[in-house]
Amino acid sequence: MNKRLNVRKTHKMFINGKFVRSESERTYNWNSKQIKTSINICQASRKDFRDAIISAKNAFPSWKSKTAYNRAQIIYRCAEIIEGRSPQLIEELALQGISQSKAVTEVKQTIDTLVYFAGWADKYNQIFSTVNPVSSPYFSFSVLEPTGIIVIIPSEKSGLLGILGGIIPTIIGGNTCVTLMPQDYPLCAASLAESLHSSDVPPGVVNIITGFQSELLEHFATHMEVNGLIYFGENIDTITAIEQNASQNLKRVSICHDKDWMYNDSLHPYSILRTQETKTTWHPIGY
Amino acid sequence: MILSNTKIDAIGIKERVARLQSRSIKATSKQQALNLALSMIDLTTLEGRDSPNKVRQLCYKATHLHENFPDLPNVAAICVYAPLVKTARHALQGSNVKVASVATAFPSGMSDIDSKLDEVKRAAEDGANEIDMVISRGRFLSGDYNYVADEIQKIKEVCGSAHLKVILETGELVTLDNVRIASELAIQSGADFIKTSTGKVQPAATPEVTLVMMQAIRDHYIKSGKLVGLKPAGGISKSKQAIQYLVMLRETLGQSWLNPKLFRFGASSLANDILMQIVKQNTGIYQSTDYFSLD
Amino acid sequence: MNSLNLQTDWQYDPAPQSTDHINLKESYDLFINGAFVPAKNNNHRNTINPSNEKIIAKVADAGPDDVNLAVSAARKAYETSWSKISHSERGKYLFRIARIIQERSRELAVIESMDGGKPIRESRDIDVPLAAAHFFYYAGWADKLKYAFPGRETQPLGVAGQIIPWNFPLLMAAWKIAPALATGNTIVLKPAETTPLTAMLLAEIIREADLPDGVVNIITGDGSTGSSLVEHPDVDKIAFTGSTAVGKEIMKKLAGKNKPYTLELGGKAANIIFADAAIDQAIEGIVNSIFFNQGHVCCAGSRLFVEESISDEIIFKLRERMETLIVGDPLDKNTDIGAINSKEQLKRIQEYVKIGQDEGGELYQSKCKLPNTGYWHAPTLFCNVSQSHRIVQEEIFGPVLAIQTFRTVDEVIEKANNTPYGLSGGVWTDKGAKIFKVTQNIRAGVIWANTFNKFDPSAPFGGYKESGMGREGGIQGLLPYLKLNPC
Fold first, then answer.
1. Measured between CA atoms, how close is C14 to chain A, in angstroms?
2. What is the CATH number of the domain that holds C480?
């Protein structure tokens, strides 16, 4: 009996709604601990990052202007798609050394997190906005608006939930983002991107790149088009470097920990606030 | 008639007024303001019970404001109902105090145009130097601006040499936008003065409507170079208020308007309050109304 | 267009605010642990009245040792008293402070105007009442924090280091101190070098209110004192209001320190006048947006955008209006524009005006007479400038307005956002739908529609982009002083 030769997946990055290789044409060799395959993962260059930022910047005005209801629909759709693709994601997680049962749980939790935050899209502004009872004849109100272009450096410990745990609260609030996959857990990038792509997440809203944090970190933190940066981790040197560089254009830096993406602790709207600005508007009342 | 469609923000006007009213007028500048205000008064009596005697008493008052201060200016005019114009004219002979007559079915304006024209003609023939007409507010509020303008133009024609003051009765126009539109209508229809109120409707003159009217006058001047006068009337009884109006006048319209030819106060009790202030300024002693003649 | 004659025969006489009741000391010490103490190194600097260059008082200059003392006093107070007393008692202290500010308002207003040069009308009607209102507002929050953030328990951060600017000395002290105390933190506050006096009065008021020792410490000094405070390891939070350049330095210094910070920084706000605006009120709004407090306002509307069809009228009327602005003695009740805060600031403004002229901007200044001594600058406009001009891009922090025209809504939104700053903005139109379209699309933290420069303790204030991070005022202003824990 002829054994069928399986078709391997090419692991591409996701920039501006397109599946691309690094412009540098570099890859790094990722070795599975489970099977004796090695996989070539794109090694993003600073130019890839730049392109991703351009696409995030271009996507921002229309994504932020979408109705909250619309954003909720898209994120919920994303949950539906991932539900359908669960086996593939479980397989990819397992390939990266996660036990089958843990992988199943992580995928389920990821889907539930998507559903949870889809529900927040049209509510967080109701919780955190205010009508300000000013002592003058003015109507004054404060609402949340997205910070803008956000770079996300997810936890090194998770290949799926940790990544979406950073992305979802960010984009549900109208921001667009560029996310770097963890160097050791890059395999879900393409499947994740495919899921986003087929859920009508507009091109550029989420950009996913793979590569080395050490190479890209400085550019993440210095790029003047970036308005905010979320880092999941404990490395004090990394944090210091990020904050120092971020001061060049006063990026909002959020330093996050495991509890900020792990399922049990992450289900709250405060993670949305990381990438929100308060805008206060005044208008006279009278005739 | 081309209206400018200028918008008014009521809160902005209120804040501007509050800012202007915070000006602190002291010492010489206060003396000057009091004298100026006195010279701008249209000493007014507009009661159903007015009689020739009452008017004669008022005219005497107008020309003898205070025995101890012979250098005081006269008030600008006496303002009476049309049937009393002759009496006033006669009583004021030899003085430079003008006679103003309210007309056009004052204060409501509820009469036909022919009666209004007759009334104005008669007042002018009787010697009124100034005619204070009212606009038809009902027509204005129903949007019939042409009617209102037409009426003013016709009245203007029969005024002859008398100056025409057009009373907008801002208390019935409700919004500052309406005050602005009515001001432009009156100005473009030939008003020599625009005047806030009859004094028979509350609120009468307010600093807010007066400021809006000043701005309309200023905009007309900027475009055409023509100077239109302004008369806030009703509710201005204290010298402090009068000074605040003058501050507003000074900083909105400036030098050309700071005289009785282009600015008047329609008031009955303001003159006495100003006199009290003038005596106080000169003597340093706070005054009592018992020492100031009520006429 | 016919000009009005606004030079009238009738002039206002001087109306100086009485200063009889003002008791200024010759010298002011540091306020540490509930007592007034001299600086360890005994250093002083003079604080002068910018309207006549006369020395008002000597003020202690805190060095690193004094910063240490102040921080440890704040730490001790945090641990021993302030975190122990009930939240409602905490609130009552703030109410007390608010009341005493009201009671001593005239004194505060006069000294504010003497020390900083701002017109007494502004310190009396705006700075001081708003400072009292701020304490009143946050006093009420002290025992209601559990209702502020749903699903979260609040926890104070500890010792807050606060650094404030010279443009609204007392008001900025109130903006900093009130929310920090209401949320249970203790404080080391550093006032600005050129305007320390009302903060020292506030120290007296805090003592008069019997606040426990060390809960609020106020140390005067210059940038180096501020720097020591920022870098002090036992400070748990930094709140800074000042320039964007210094804000960036602070952020850099705090990198990796796991120390929360809030920054209220510079701005270059667009003030947009559409043709369908209430023109005369817009003129007032422009005047208020750029000449309020001599233009020493981070949220000043220093970039004016006028729709082309009305630009001649607006500029004509604005110039006329400028002639009625009274520039002079800050203590005169009729003064609209007071003295420039310092010699350095005046020099900076003058340099920018020169740059504007060299760049080809069309200069217009009101014909007001400036006093001979002191630091003064006439209200100034620049026409014929564009986004590429330096005076359009850079914050001048003075009474200098750069005017550009525009044609379409999209164009003006794009230009309004074409700046690294994002603190405030102004929109003037009578059309409601347009207001919302424009206010939603300006990337700035405070937007005034058909008004400008309005403030209230209940209305959060703060910037987007390089104008800073964090909010002051409102329920939002509590957050920078709290840790939120799941409950």
1. 30
2. 3.40.605.10
